[in-house]
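Repro case for the chain-ordering regression, as requested:
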Amino acid sequence: MKILIVEDEPDLSSAIKDYLTSEGNLCETAATYETAYQKISLYSYDCILLDLMLPDGDGLKLLKYLKSLQKTEGVVIISARNALDDRITGLNLGADDYLIKPFHLSELNARIAAIIRRKNNQLSNVLSFNEIGVDLNAKTISVNGQEMHFTRKEYDLLLYFIYNKGKAISKSAAAEHLWGDDADMADSFDFIYTHIKNIRKKLSDAGAKDYFHSVYGVGYRFSDV
Amino acid sequence: MNLFAKYNRILLLVLLTGLVAVGILFYQALTYTLNGKIDENLTEELMEVNDYAHVKNIAPAPPDEPNLIIEYKKAIKATKQHQSGDTTFYNPKKKVNEYARYLKADVVIQGQPLHVLILNSKAEQARQVQLIFWAIIIPVIFLCGLLALLNRYLLLKLWSPFYQVLKQIKGFNVKHGNYAVVDTDISEFKQLNEAIKQMTVQIEDDFKEIKLFTENASHEMMTPIAIINSKLDTLLQSHTLAENDSQALLDLYKATTRLNKINQSLLLLVKIDHNLLGEKEELNPAELIKQKIDNFQELISQRSIKVYCSFDGTTISGNKYQFDILLNNLFSNAIRHNKPGGEIHISVKNGLLNFENTGNTHALSESQIFERFYKDPQSDGVGLGLAILKQICIKQGYSLRYYFRLPMHGFELQLGH
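-- result from build under test --
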């Protein structure tokens, strides 16, 4: 996938680029409104990450311009501004998602993957990982074609790990994915452990391999090896 | 005591003292004059008696005058002595006791020394004094009343700019800052106006600046936190971390999450202040609370907390987003400060939301718990949850109260009628 990262903070931009590149994406960066404007005019992307506050212009104007070109790129706004108005304006202008800084890279990756899937697979929307299948429309999990019962949070968590397959995901990122702003609640990290344990048990009961690997006790990696 | 009462009290006191003093002086002067006149009368009478004695050499019969009595008494020896003064006597002509002036003197009639006592009744004089007194006192009282009324009117009119200023200061809200200069041509009030205008402008500016500072500082912090967060995520992908590095990584994640939470909370407070969180709509508290219980299910059951609910069908008008944050904070507070195996009681009845939880066995200080960055020493929160709760309540017009009824800590919110 081709992704354009419009972000003026070089450190953040490079961290995003590294993470997404290692996921097998092709990333380009633009640090100013001008460069972003040129790149949007000249090339096509699958997804554009758009910071709203650029040193030489407003990201929302870029979004308007992009939509005026009739392009089909998915757009994720990444902004430090958590104003309701910005969010509504952004989404109304055709952005697909709105992510507030600071965010976890795994969260960003999951959102991008979801958008690209939405754009590309309009009909069948089943994401599969070896013997595990995730029906994104019906929000169900199946192993070897056998549908399983997963709670909503277990489903969300498994999907999150599959989107970020092969990556180490910290418990804090997973907790934030499930509980959002309330992730700092006492012992929320322990609940991640409990959820993962349950998911592992359900999957192995249904005959799937155990793909969860603990990473230094800080998080988990969902991978084949 | 207000300005009028104070002013009127002083005025009345001065007027009354003055009136009494003038009255006493006037009375003294009047009696002195009238007494002098009577005494003159008496002397004249004595002279008549003397004349009569010299001419006819017999004592004159008392004249035909009801207020004048002349009495004679035989004396051993006539002296030149005259004596006069006030007395009371029985007036045989009118058959009443009366006040009178008297004059005692000795005369010699036909070689016989006699004491003569001439009494002049003061009845006539008293009537005169009375008449004069009323003729003066009635207009004076009338004038006083008029003065009081005039004063009241004048004071009200003169001080009206002051009252307008006062009303505005009372209603002053730093968030709207709408001090309008009161129109007046009195220089003191003009100065007051100017001074207050300057003060309010200064306060508004300072307030805006502080808000802007908080907002900007929080925003500026977002990017560094985002960088730390993303670098941590990148670091975690490394396959070469030593075992003891991982603990540091975990701590860093926790600290970053916490830093982020503080920042988000500060921004949220600013936003609630700015009324940036949207419009009001009809809400069903019971429904929203049930959703929250669902959302917090793991947290609740992990500590074996039991939740008891009782709801009526109250609907309220409020902002959904703010009400959501309000419930979040109530729940996170009730779970965080609960004990394992404790209880949470939630009830909604007639627009009254009661949120109770078990926890410490001592009451918290109501004045402190809603302050920013106040928290229990054992708490691992950031100390802004209840401050946000209070701010939302103020903005949404809910009354908020903390109470402690062993063993429950409770919050009572009046959401509507």
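Ordering looks correct now. Chain A touches chain B through 47 residues (CB under 8 Å).
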